[in-house]
Write a structure and sequence with these properties.
The complex is a heterodimer of chains A (577) and B (347). Chain A is mainly α and 577 residues long. Chain A folds into 2 domains: 65-350, MetI-like fold, CATH 1.10.3720; 351-572, MetI-like (MetI-like fold, Orthogonal Bundle), CATH 1.10.3720. Chain A is built from 22 helices and no strands. Residues 1-11 and 287-298 of chain A have low confidence and may be disordered. Chain B is an alpha/beta fold and 347 residues long. Chain B has 2 domains: 2-133 and 259-313, Periplasmic binding protein-like II (D-Maltodextrin-Binding Protein, domain 2, 3-Layer(aba) Sandwich), CATH 3.40.190; 134-257 and 319-346, 3-Layer(aba) Sandwich (D-Maltodextrin-Binding Protein, domain 2). Chain B is built from 14 helices and 13 strands. Chain B has helices spanning 19-28, 39-52, 65-79, 90-96, 154-157, 176-188, 190-204, 212-221, 232-240, 271-282, 284-291, 309-316, 329-333, 335-341; strands at 2-7, 30-35, 57-63, 85-89, 106-107, 129-141, 166-169, 207-209, 226-231, 245-247, 255-265, 297-298, 323-325. In chain B, strands 1, 2, 3, 4, 5, 6, 7, 8, 9, 10, 11, 12 and 13 form a 13-stranded mixed sheet that branches. In chain B, helix 1 crosses helix 10 (271-282), helix 8 (212-221) runs parallel beside helix 9 (232-240) and helix 10 crosses helix 11. Chain B is globular, with a radius of gyration of 20 Å. Chain B starts with a strand and ends in a 6-residue tail after the last helix. Classes of the chains: A mainly alpha (577), B alpha/beta (347). Chains A and B meet through helix 11, helix 17, helix 21 and helix 22 of A and strand 1, helix 2, strand 3, helix 3 and strand 8 of B.
């Protein structure tokens, strides 16, 4: 359970060759696109055109004082949104995991549900709710005698709020999982010594969780700094430039400037890689603080918080209203309007937006089919590759296994939009015949989401006892047979959960595939983005209807994921001592 | 940014007079189009095209100019070719024509039907074919500005009574809106426009938004009172649906128009099908098909369709000023330099 068990030495003759092949394939798909981006940043001309290598792009970028403001703003946005998300995630985790809040077992899974709102959809909802004067909540406040400019989504607070809300489910997933594995006997000892609940949380629980919380913060910071949806949808209109929005703006904002975009991408990549390095160090550090020992382990008991448990329940309810209820209400309402006129919302409700979306002319059917196919294939590919990587890294002594895992985790440090830009050039210049096909989308999704796959199944791999693997080895089984006959059946529940998690990520991914779309490989996420950016009335309303449809699809996937996790828990729940 | 449709017909009957070009296009079997109109709008054109020229698979991808330019440029430089046909506003197209500021990605081809179009709408460089027209205007929210307070001069717009009420597209990106102001300077004079923009900044501190459509949308929903400015085709459906929005009639302000042109791209893989499609869109049948889309206005003034420039103006912008076409190729290719002169609006 602790990951410190001795490694089994499996027969590695064929496996080593497979490992070399795996490293080579991963290097092509992961490093080659990055190589292109880095190379472009040192090229004097446009990529693929005449020019020479130069440091001029860096001199120009670093010589412009605006760059430093942009970097500073990136740190402010990513840092503050990550901090808020971590704060919220920690509070929610404490309530659902460590307290006797009513319905806590059911409540535990509810904060997962905002994952059904891809950032694109959530941002649209925030805009219609909090836009100055025209936002629903501002209009409501105006009717109550307050200012209709109480909230302003196009502002620093609005920008950080939207960024933080996108990160909170991820923060909660990470922290609540670690908190569930915490040994509650230390808390009980604190309570037995006369400490109050708050004191116990402050002096025992949170310090024990600190390394995990810090790791989650760095993960959220990385994701926030590398995302482009909120910076372009809310940051740019607010006049706030962060690095991801300037990269987007230099490619899509008018006359393309690839040299600057590439150089900014590399700068961002360098910053994020430093954070990822710290993140990995903190993960290693957190293992020194592990309190799940396998012996004397107790995680089943919770802190009794008395009447405060109703306040805790109210906090969860308020979060769910804000993170799920309000956006769902807004997007659903928008999808039922012929046009969004905030002062006349209920007089002309119509289903024609859904009729259009579900007609052949919207393009939704082929896009949904493509998304389904691409997500199923990429989730399966990711799971297979991640399984081999994790198994090799954690259960063999094969040389180079660390390199393989490092390569697999590398895309987490590459912002999705930068990866997409690199993949565009990679597939344009390598004659694979994949450019413009669904295959290129599958590869982009597989590469960008591979780290999530590795992280998701690592726990499942570690949980399968070494003795079984060693018994298989003693019986003459090779690595493939051991994986197929021993490991897969035992780890099946966690693998299914991981597959669904990656499937959800693939279905709503946008940045990684944005530059790769064509007439024949449109995904549902890129179709929605095209509706959003076209500005045409019919498209805007179809966008809302599509958001509702996407929400329902992802909600189903998340529900299945939750059901599987609950079954997994029942199987694996340790016996309290 | 993009949406797509693929349509094909396998019927082989045709009454096409240009049989040789059609036969050559049939041999190519398909044509790839990148265009600014939505995929839904272009389905009407594809249907009309396939009705006249069956057997050619039209693969359409809707790309707004900011997405179309990098895609075409990247594909041309990496593969040596991109789509077969590009359909974009002249403000984008002129930057892609030979000697353009972005790349020489256009292969000169002008449909013979263009000879019947008004001279003012034609591509001065003679490399692409105008298909539809886009009118540019300033709009206001009728709920937020009473009839008595509706500004009628540029000076009244640049007035502190509208502080925080004015929204405009970013004029510093080199795109259509930069070229709009640059062209307006050519019509009204540098000092008039520069003085107006400086007064506007001082008096109203206009909010800058990333697109002309979001500018119009903000006025339709009541977030802001005045939009400077946006395309009539974006505002028209909102007005049809009851949005409290009208165009401003400003004394001396011309109605700026820009054509949306179809061009064959360099090294097109299906050149005959590309020419056939461009010819079709410029033909009376194609122009009629465009005019029957809500709200699209064909450049031909001789076809009978649901919409024309005259009917669009009469319906949505009565009293609009003198019609002026923009940009000149010079303005389009120097848009980046113009953009810098408007930077003070964002400070």
């Amino acid at each position: 359970m602790t990951g410190t068990a001795k490694r089994s030495v499996l027969p590695v003759g064929a496996s080593s060759l497979a490992l070399v092949a795996g490293v080579a394939v991963l290097a092509v798909f992961i490093l080659y696109p990055i190589f292109f981006t880095v190379s472009s940043s040192f090229w004097s001309g446009e990529p693929g055109l005449a020019g020479h290598y130069t440091l001029g792009n860096y001199a120009a970028l670093l010589g412009d004082e605006q760059t430093y403001f942009t970097v500073l703003d990136t740190f402010v946005q990513a840092g503050s949104s990550a901090a808020i998300a971590i704060g919220l995630g920690t509070v929610l985790s404490i309530i659902t995991v460590r307290t006797d809040t009513p319905f806590r077992r059911a409540l535990f899974y509810l904060p997962y549900f905002p994952l059904a709102f891809p950032v694109l959809i959530a941002n649209q909802a925030w805009i219609y709710l909090f836009e100055e004067r025209a936002g629903l909540l501002n209009i409501l406040l105006g009717d109550l005698g307050f200012s209709t400019s109480t909230f302003s989504i196009y502002s620093w607070p609005g920008f950080i709020f939207a960024s933080a809300m996108a990160l909170t489910p991820i923060s909660y997933l990470t922290i609540s999982a670690a908190m569930r594995n915490m040994d509650s006997s230390l808390e009980e000892a604190s309570r037995a010594s006369g400490s109050g609940v708050l004191n116990t949380l402050r002096r025992v629980s949170i310090p024990l969780m600190a390394p995990s919380i810090f790791s989650a913060f760095l993960l959220c910071f990385t994701l926030s700094a590398g995302s482009f949806e909120t910076p372009t949808m809310i940051g740019l209109p607010a006049g706030i430039n962060v690095m991801m929005s300037t990269v987007y703006d230099n490619v899509y904002g008018g006359t393309p400037n690839y040299a600057t975009a590439s150089t900014e991408s590399v700068l961002l990549l360098a910053i994020v890689m430093v954070v990822v390095y710290l993140y990995n160090r903190s993960l290693r550090g957190s293992r020194r603080f592990e309190v799940v020992t396998g012996k004397g382990y107790s995680s089943g008991r919770v802190l009794s918080v008395g009447r405060w448990r109703y306040l805790a329940f109210a906090i969860i309810a308020a979060y769910l209203v804000l993170a799920v209820g309000l956006p769902l209400f807004t997007v659903t309402l928008l999808s039922l309007e012929p046009i969004w006129l905030p002062n006349d919302l209920f007089g002309r409700l119509t289903t024609k937006n859904f009729q259009f979306l579900l007609s052949n002319s919207s393009g939704a059917y082929p896009a949904l089919t493509n998304s389904l196919l691409a997500s199923v294939v990429s989730a399966s590919v990711i799971l297979g590759v991640a399984l081999v990587i994790v198994f090799a890294a954690r259960r063999t002594n094969i040389r180079g296994r660390g390199l393989l895992e490092g390569l697999g985790m590398f895309p987490i440090s590459v912002p999705a939009l930068v990866l997409s830009f690199g993949l565009l050039w990679a597939f344009l210049t390598i004659p694979t015949g994949l450019y413009g096909t669904l295959g290129v989308m599958v590869i982009a999704l597989s590469v960008s989401l591979l780290p999530q796959g590795i992280r998701s199944i690592s726990g499942g791999v570690v949980q399968v006892q070494m003795e079984l693997q060693e018994a298989a080895r003693a019986s003459g089984a090779n690595m493939a047979t051991t994986i197929r006959r021993i490991f897969l059946p035992l780890a099946r529940p966690s693998l299914v959960g991981a597959w669904l998690y990656v499937f959800i990520g693939s279905f709503n991914a946008l940045g990684a595939v944005l530059f790769l779309q064509s007439a024949n490989n449109q995904l549902f996420s890129t179709l929605l983005w095209s509706f959003y950016t076209s500005g045409q009335l019919l498209s805007t309303q179809a966008f809302a209807a599509g958001c509702v449809l996407l929400f329902l699809i992802l909600l189903c996937a998340i529900t299945v994921m939750v059901v599987i996790q609950r079954r997994l828990e029942r199987i694996q729940r340790p016996t309290p001592t | 940014m993009s949406s797509s449709s693929t349509t094909s017909s396998t019927s082989t009957t045709s009454t096409n007079p240009d049989a040789a070009l059609y036969q050559a296009a049939l041999a190519e079997a398909s044509v790839v189009v990148y265009g600014a109109p939505t995929a839904v709008q272009f389905q009407n054109i594809t249907a009309a095209f396939n009705a006249e020229y069956p057997g050619i698979n039209v693969q359409y991808t809707s790309l707004q100019p900011p997405a179309a330019v990098p895609q075409v440029e990247s594909e041309e430089s990496a593969q040596g070719h991109s789509a077969d046909v590009l359909l974009q506003a002249a403000t984008t197209m002129y930057t892609l024509e030979p000697a353009g500021s972005v790349c020489s990605c256009v292969s000169p081809y002008v449909s013979p039907y263009a000879s019947g179009f008004p001279k003012a709408v034609l591509d001065p460089l003679n490399q692409s074919t105008p298909i539809i027209e886009l009118a540019f205007g300033w709009a206001f929210n009728t709920n937020m500005i009473s009839a008595a307070n509706v500004p009628t001069t540029m000076g009244q717009v640049a007035n502190s009574q509208f502080k925080g009420e004015v929204v405009m597209n970013d004029p510093t990106t080199g795109t259509a809106f930069t070229q709009y102001w640059a062209s307006l300077e050519g019509v009204l004079g540098n000092s008039t426009v520069t003085t107006f923009l400086q007064d506007l900044k001082t008096a109203t501190d206009p909010v800058i938004v990333p697109t002309t459509t979001s500018c119009m949308n903000d006025v339709a929903t009541g977030a802001y009172a005045i939009c400077l400015g946006g395309y009539m085709q974006d505002a028209a459906p909102d007005i049809q649906q009851g949005a409290p929005m009208k165009f401003l009639n400003i004394t001396g302000l011309p109605l700026m128009l820009t054509p949306s042109n179809a061009a064959m791209l360099k090294n097109a893989q299906h050149p005959n099908a590309a020419k056939l499609l461009i010819d079709f869109m410029a033909s009376p049948t194609g122009q009629t098909a465009w005019g029957n889309i809500n709200v699209r206005t064909p450049v031909s003034q001789t076809v009978t369709a649901k919409w024309s420039l005259a009917s669009e103006i009469a319906t949505f912008y009565p009293g609009a000023g003198t019609q002026i076409y923009f940009p000149t190729p010079t303005v389009a290719t120097s848009a980046s330099a113009w953009a810098a002169t408007f930077a003070f609006l964002k400070s």
